[in-house]
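Working notes for the structural subgroup meeting. M.R. asked for a predicted model of this chain before we commit to crystallization trials. I am recording the input and output together here so anyone reviewing the notebook later can reproduce the run.

Input as submitted:
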Amino acid sequence: MPASAPPRRPRPPPPSLSLLLVLLGLGGRRLRAEPGDGAQTWARFSRPPAPEAAGLFQGTFPDGFLWAVGSAAYQTEGGWQQHGKGASIWDTFTHHPLAPPGDSRNASLPLGAPSPLQPATGDVASDSYNNVFRDTEALRELGVTHYRFSISWARVLPNGSAGVPNREGLRYYRRLLERLRELGVQPVVTLYHWDLPQRLQDAYGGWANRALADHFRDYAELCFRHFGGQVKYWITIDNPYVVAWHGYATGRLAPGIRGSPRLGYLVAHNLLLAHAKVWHLYNTSFRPTQGGQVSIALSSHWINPRRMTDHSIKECQKSLDFVLGWFAKPVFIDGDYPESMKNNLSSILPDFTESEKKFIKGTADFFALCFGPTLSFQLLDPHMKFRQLESPNLRQLLSWIDLEFNHPQIFIVENGWFVSGTTKRDDAKYMYYLKKFIMETLKAIKLDGVDVIGYTAWSLMDGFEWHRGYSIRRGLFYVDFLSQDKMLLPKSSALFYQKLIEKNGFPPLPENQPLEGTFPCDFAWGVVDNYIQVSQLTKPISSLTKPYHYISDFQCLRHAFHLNNLKNNILRSTQPDFRLIHMDCHFTWTHFLG
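Returned structure, recorded in token form:
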């Protein structure tokens, strides 16, 4: 039985009194935002936050909020030659003996990862192709409402072109969708998550050829016909910035073409046209009967000005234009690139015809946002920062999108962080960022009036992490890559996410509520006087000259020695000189880092 599309929720009421009065005067409608309005974001957040916005924020998400988790075919499926699957560009790229510049797929491989004697690949990965029940049981444990996964183009069409599809490939995705239906979990399906069939790369030069858009349309039509009755959220292409720039300009990712900026911009141009073709196909031929929604997953970073000057803020705006606006402005605003790109890249940025602008404009039913280490601090081109400072601030990015693209409904379709590949189930760092990002999302909804309809933690399980191979982990569930059965074991973050979904956010707890009362009459009130002074050493202390963690007696500084057995003991060479801490209190020993 086809799943019904969840109704669109009304926008959350804006919190500020002034904005509320404006809304009442406009009959409840928000003021229209225009490209460039996002620049207000930096000035707004440069002011000290209101007490309710600082630190821990308590509250729950709107009713009907979409709680999801995600994965991608090449990262988790494995089965790279099983049952007639064709080769993809990532199969070729990872099997190739020469690694691209900056590649670290074999760096710091953890216990349980494939042998460092061979290049890291997704040949087996998490073996999801042979473990549908295992994966869906993990979804049941989490209690998510939605599961985002991608279809391997080469698994259903081994040659990439329309023709006789691979029955076993279609059967695998039908089994997965049927199991999701049994669990009451809605699928969010990505058509293209970076794994182009190798045959199309060989025959056409991949996305550098405009003809590929027609093949992508044919592949999408096959998926809509076979799976569309059970899918209400479709993603055409994941992270076109990375596909275009690092696939065809820098060569850091598959297909590994070390071209030029001109080629990267051409590929992005073709990706936008291909996306628009698929949206129009669905809108005309499938939406009337299937009732789903289609978007394109756009990744972004966040950037802060070095100084709160007009020039620095303009450079920050330009940075977001060159990464997110590159694709979002054509789709959500007017079918054309940001003015800052056209002004700075006039000789290498392709032009859209007027008919193409009309064709691309409005080809997304919601704003699908990816935010996290796939791009931030990893694959963002340094030149596109324009000498400003990257920051992992999701709330400010959501506010910028809300203003820059006229208050769209935003579905966060990828978010999270990573831990070392040696980390097993105690992933405190990942859990910290997960809580931080979800709380920032809640603040954006409750305090800023941003219409966020869903959140996707990335990812369901550990897998192959692209250019990082198996040197990092991003899953809520731990996978021992050397084991035969590849069991999924919940990490601390999985238990946290499950509880958070169950409570629909961070509901106020009784022990954290304001309390009024008086202390007993004989209660003793006092004060203590102490201080800590941190100063630059004019001369290094002989015992503090090595870059280690130290423990020292500050009353006399006669004893200062490094701790040999402390994990991650060596300090980075970029850390500042050692500081001397003077303490006028009763501590005899203290720990400090150089």
